[in-house]
Amino acid sequence: MTDSSSDALWSQTVDTLSAVLPQLMALRGKTLVVKYGGNAMTDVSLQRAFAQDIALLQALGITPVVVHGGGPQIEKALAAVGKEGRFVHGMRYTDDQTMQVVQWVLAGQVQGEIVGLINAAGGRAMGLTGRDGGLFSATRLNLPDPIQPGVFHDVGWVGDIQKVDPAVIRDLQARGYVPVISPIAVGENNQSFNVNADVVAGEIARALDAERLLLLTNTAGVLDAQGALLKDLTPAMVDAMVKDGSISGGMLPKIASALDSARSGVRSVHIMDGRVPHALFREAASPQGTGTVVRPDAA
Ligand SMILES: Nc1ncnc2c1ncn2[C@@H]1O[C@H](COP(=O)(O)OP(=O)(O)O)[C@@H](O)[C@H]1O
Ligand SMILES: CC(=O)N[C@@H](CCC(=O)OP(=O)(O)O)C(=O)O
């Protein structure tokens, strides 16, 4: 590289940094809970970009907390043992064998990969599940049908979170670690529960009084029945879309968690596209939010 092209590159780098610095500085000391969906981590280069973003945010004094999913990775592991996954309104039906596979994949594989990538990118990450430090406990979920009032579904060993104790997260943060949390809860008698990762992310965001909850997935955000991105969503719109079936499957727990968090005071809640390289850093650094912003009311 010649000196003049290097000068130009440095000028451009400094201009870019200066432009995004105010937005990033406003987040210093604030907690950003990031749900990293299994569908947004299927590509290794995207995973590396995500890890770089986490390491950069941490270096800037912002405190990210990662909750990871792994639905597609669990599907693959189930297929390898000759089992087919089944979902009931976005929740995996979890029998004994499925619970074992879920634990291997989430706590044994996906969590370690994310921790490793963040550390390799220059950050400091530590993995844990709901069991560690009594972070979150659950009882067996009786899943209400999203459309038919009074109808409930048994989904096996799926957890309904009862208690979140964020002390262990605060300890890790005080020691400079980014917690990377697997959505496995502990129940009475030491039973493990499979919990939807969007639900865990919302519970953690509320317990930490987070500034932002970012749910990274494999769509541009919440789409209407014609497939167009909805930039803003209110509870009334969500109600109507659930009833007419234009929000379904994996989007059901996501939107419920987003709404609960927005209503409980998390300042900014987004469902956004995790397939975009550096989606997280772009969201933190740019004044316009990306994806769908979920609002607590019609205002
Ligand atoms: N209205 C909607 N807008 C966007 N996605 C929707 C909608 N309704 C259902 N979905 C489904 O929800 C999926 C995202 O949830 P999920 O598969 O659980 O992903 P993740 O692994 O990121 O949690 C989308 O890929 C899409 O198939
Ligand atoms: C109860 C339930 O459905 N648990 C999820 C946990 C993983 C998850 O939520 O992964 P994604 O975020 O990638 O969908 C499952 O077993 O797939």
Automatic annotation (TrEMBL):
This is Acetylglutamate kinase. Its EC number is 2.7.2.8. The keyword Transferase applies. Keywords: Kinase, Transferase.
